[in-house]
Amino acid sequence: MDQGQATEAWPQRCGQKAPLASCEDLSAASPAAKRAQQEGQEQLVEQGFTIEDPMAVPLDRYNLVYWIFLLHGIGTLMPWNMFITAKEYFVDYKLSEEYTGEKTALASNFLAYVGLTAQIPNVIFNWANILWEGKGQNLTTRVVYSLVFEVFIFILTVVLAMVNTSTWPEAFFFVTMGSVAALNMANGIYQNTVYGMAAKLPFKYTGAVVLGSNISGTFTSIVSIVSLLIAPDARTSAIYYFITALFILLVCFDTYFALPLNRFYRYHEMVNEKEQQALRRAQIGQTSSAPLWPIFKKCMPQLFNIFFVFFVTLAIFPAVHADIKQSSPDFFISEKFFTEITCFLTFNMFAMIGSMTASWFPWPGPKYLVVPVVLRVFFIPFFMVCNYQPLPINSRLFPVFINNDWAYWIASMLLGWTSGHFSALGMMYCPRMVEPQHAVRAGMLGAGFLITGIFCGILFTMLPPIFVKSISWTV
């Protein structure tokens, strides 16, 4: 890992985060802050850092830390993306009438069932991670145990793909739902902790996690398509597919232990700890609990943006989006791959691009981000008037107004790009709304509202099938 003595200048202007102190002179700081500053410098010497020049800061050589956080961003949404993208395996194979020999209602709302089963424990454990009063626990414990548990669940999922479950479809369904629930209990802690870790670092590292989470969707979509192409049957395809997820989680596990070996990461972790110590000493005799409410009030505009972006996105994708059928038989994408390409691959690829463009040109700014975020609500009625055909097919009464596959596909691109771009901006702006010592808690709050937005969006997906099947409208 990075063992050089590369340095970069500290920020010289107010408004930019200086690692060990604000841009104000230390003579104006409290005695507690001065003591913490001195102790921090002594520890830097012990850790091998050079402070003859007190403005020396290690660089992230080759962007190793950035790439590690991007990888963990992929890992945070890998469990969710793997199960929703495998719709064909679950609905058209394991729970289908051809495989089980009987009709079952379990396949009709499979994505909605997966969404609720996944997000209820994810929301609970995500917020428990935020509200847990023992704030100083070792983050390694949270990350390591979460990843180990997720690896175990994916091994079970691969085994279930290998086993013939045609004679017990109900049991298979409930075991799958139990696996999804357990997986997301662990993932709620893992995801929240990763965002908290990234908030200790400069601005772009939170963006790396968001980018990774969007790459995760694109990656799983590509793996799904490749598995369908190279595998001789649905069973083998699923085995390849879920083993890939297992491999990614193992890589995340390994790279987490590389972070403390990196000088750049170790430096910023120590800086954050010194800021926390200074804050605690300055508050001796006052309440020791973390100021969650003041942090919430300062971050509230960005927390709403994060929540509403994911609410609108999950109200459409994947439950409504995946049930939009091909309108024209002459469309250049075949019916077999229509959903895989126009829904899963398109949305995830453009969400990934959106998260990258947020880093390239962070527009709009924190004050006006709410405007395009709220306008995204019009995506919901748009996709409902496309050729949306929830199961059972031909049960729709509400008329289809948009029969153009190109119009639907372009809207899919816009849905993905706006989701990635605006969610990345919200997550990057959120830690900047508070003092540096509260950035970790703000980052974790952002992750909490992200998950809550996903959960509420999934709850909303129960309504579109009811609406289009119950409301008739003669034009």
From TrEMBL:
Q: What superkingdom heads the lineage?
A: Eukaryota
**Keywords associated with the record:** Membrane, Transmembrane, Transmembrane helix, Transport
- Membrane topology summary: Multi-pass membrane protein
Q: Where in the cell is it found?
A: Membrane
Q: What is its main location?
A: membrane
Which Pfam family is one of those matched by this entry?
Nucleoside_tran
What residue ranges are annotated as transmembrane? 64-84, 110-132, 144-165, 171-190, 211-232, 238-259, 303-321, 341-361, 368-386, 406-430, 442-467
Q: Which InterPro entries match?
A: Eqnu_transpt
* GO molecular function terms attached to this record: nucleoside transmembrane transporter activity
Kindly list the GO CC terms recorded for this protein. Answer: plasma membrane
Similarity field: Belongs to the SLC29A/ENT transporter (TC 2.A.57) family.
Protein name in UniProt: Equilibrative nucleoside transporter 1
